Amino acid sequence: MQKIYSTKVYNTGGRVGQAFTEDKAFQVTVVQPGTKQEGATNPEQLFAAGYASCFNGALGAVLKQKGIVAEATVSATVTLYTLPTTDLPNVQLGVAIEGHIEGVTLAESQELLELAHTVCPYSKAVAGNIEVTVTAV
Q1: Among candidate residues 62, 78, 81, the one with its CA nearest the CA of residue 70
Q2: Could you tell me the CA-to-CA distances from 64 to 13, 68, 73 in Å, in that order?
Q3: Fold category of 42-136 in CATH
Q4: Which residues belong to CATH 3.30.300.20 in the chain?
Q5: How distant is the alpha carbon of residue 71 from its chain centre?
Q6: DSSP label at 71?
Q7: In whole angstroms, what is the distance from residue 76 CA to residue 51 CA?
């Protein structure tokens, strides 16, 4: 396996703190889910942004390989679920991916999205670990 990119993000304060890269090109205030603070986000929003972007990149590669020239929009809804409790919090993520491909039928879009799901690095990373649904809209 050949490494093609690597990045490192630091966090101080956990879910109520800061996340930043060493060069400070990326800096964000982190808050608890449901907390409203201007300029702040939470880990679930960051994961959703990364997953949607990665998935749409994978979809772009699929479209190119199939010779389809079309604009695509992808959303990722990340949900926290609580599971039966133990001594520690027992929370799990779920993700709902929705995608729209301009000029392509819903059935064709679903097939292309499912193919993108097999090549997306985020999808591969979570496969078998969390529930992910993929739906053409």
Answers
A1: 62
A2: 42, 6, 15
A3: GMP Synthetase; Chain A, domain 3 (3.30.300)
A4: 42-136
A5: 19
A6: -
A7: 7
pLDDT tens across 86-110, in order? 777 788 999 999 999 999 999 999 9
Kindly list the distances between the CA atom of residue 46 and the CA atoms of 51, 68, 81, 110, 120, in Å, as whole numbers in the listed order.
Answer: 9, 30, 17, 25, 17
pLDDT digits (tens, 9 = 90+) for 33-77: 999 999 999 999 999 999 999 999 999 999 999 999 999 999 999
Cα angle 52, 13, 50 (rounded to 5 degrees) comes to 10
The full DSSP string for 83-132 is: -S--SS--EEEEEEEEEEETTS-HHHHHHHHHHHHHH-HHHHHHTTTSEE
Beta pairing, strands 72-82 & 40-41: unpaired
Structure-block tokens of residue 80: 């926290």
pTM: 0.93
Q: What would you measure as the largest C-alpha separation in the chain, in angstroms?
A: 53
